[in-house]
């Protein structure tokens, strides 16, 4: 059965598209079937795939990517009929009605955030919107692009606040390995190490 993992936060700049591609590469490396639904109007995942294919026309596709900026219900129906596959949904930094079916059918929502005040406030607003829409998917908060040299004095209280809502995933540290993303090249050892604990926790959450 397909597993739908939505990567979303109404705050832009939290690394959603980059994480989506790195997660897809990690799962593909593990031999799992993966499809990415690019719901962002900017189509960053789709555009990168097309650019890379122009440079390497004979490349083998590690995973499929689809423009899902409209007709979300149709994509959900197709996803559920795809069998054993992980559906990663890359959402924009805003909420729109087209996204609702993805949230309603998600097995988990991965919510990237940083510990600065603006991001935390926008993340809590995003959670309130999900609650109003009665979204019941597991909420997995992901501290992303974290500079371990800088400690926010409110970090523990922020984590405790999020724990009351969902689970907190292992952090992903700030680094070149994560930003060096591709939709065609296999994930390298450094990238695997950077995200492996995070992805494995996500897999546990959607495969209880």
How would you characterize the overall build of this protein?
This protein has 208 residues and is an alpha/beta fold. Helices cover 42% and strands 18% of the residues. The chain contains 8 helices and 8 strands; from the N terminus they run E-H-E-H-E-H-E-H-E-H-E-H-E-E-H-H. It has helices at residues 16-29, 44-55, 72-80, 100-104, 117-132, 155-163, 176-179, 189-206, and strands at residues 3-7, 34-38, 64-67, 86-90, 108-113, 138-146, 167-168, 172-173. Helix 6 links the parallel strand 6 (138-146) and strand 7 (167-168). The chain is globular. The mean pLDDT is 93.
Topology summary:
Blueprint: E1 3-7, H1 16-29, E2 34-38, H2 44-55, E3 64-67, H3 72-80, E4 86-90, H4 100-104, E5 108-113, H5 117-132, E6 138-146, H6 155-163, E7 167-168, E8 172-173, H7 176-179, H8 189-206
Parallel strand pairs: 1-4, 1-5, 2-3, 2-4, 5-6, 6-7, 6-8
Helix pairs in contact: 1-8
Write down the Rg.
16 Å
How far is the N terminus from the C terminus? Answer: 13 Å
Strand content: 15-25%
Main sheet characteristics: 8 strands, parallel
Helix content: 40-55%
**Global outline:** globular
Q: What integer is the average pLDDT?
A: 93
Beta strands, count = 8
Order of helices and strands: EHEHEHEHEHEHEEHH
> What would you call the structural class?
alpha/beta
The low-pLDDT segments are: none
Number of helices: 8
